[in-house]
Amino acid sequence: MVEKRCISKEAEIQQKITTTQRVLAGMHRIEGCRRHHVSCESRYQQAQAEQLELERRDTASLYQRTLEQRAKKAAGGGKQQQQQHPPTGKQQQQQDAEPAAAEQRNHTLIMIFTKLQPQVYVFRS
C-alpha cells in the first residue's frame, strides 16, 4: 500500500512536470509570435503609407487627365458647333448625355482603381 502511494505520487509529480513544460513551450511560442508581429508591424505601416501615397498620386493624375479631357472637349466642341448645323432635339439629348456618361465612367474607374489597388498590393507582398 505504501509503495502504491509512492508510485502514485511520483506519477503525479511527473504529470505536473509534463504539463508545466507544455505550458511553458506554449508561452515561448506565443512570445515568439509577439516579437515577430512587433518587428513586422513597422515595416507594414511604412509600406501601407507608401501605398496610400501612390494611390493619392494616381488618383490626382487620373483626375487631372479628366479635367484636361473636359477642357479639350469644351474647346473642341465650340469650334465644331460653329461649322455644323445646330443639332436636332434627339442629337442635343445625346450630346447632353455624353459628358454625363463620360463623367460617370471616369468616376467609376476612379472608384474601381482605389478599391482594387490595396488588394493587388496584398498579393504582391
Automatic annotation (TrEMBL):
Database matches in PANTHER family: MASTERMIND-LIKE (PTHR15692), MASTERMIND-LIKE PROTEIN 3 (PTHR15692:SF8)
Pfam family, one: MamL-1
Biased composition (Low complexity): 80-103
Domain of life (superkingdom): Eukaryota
Protein name in UniProt: Neurogenic mastermind-like N-terminal domain-containing protein
Keyword Nucleus: yes
GO process terms (BP): positive regulation of transcription of Notch receptor target
Gene Ontology CC terms, in alphabetical order: nuclear speck
Gene Ontology molecular function, alphabetical: transcription coactivator activity
SMART domains cross-referenced by the UniProt entry: MamL-1 (SM01275)
InterPro entries for the chain: MAML1-3, MAML_N_sf, Mastermind-like_N
Localisation per UniProt entry: Nucleus speckle
UniProt organism field: Alligator mississippiensis
Family statement: Belongs to the mastermind family.
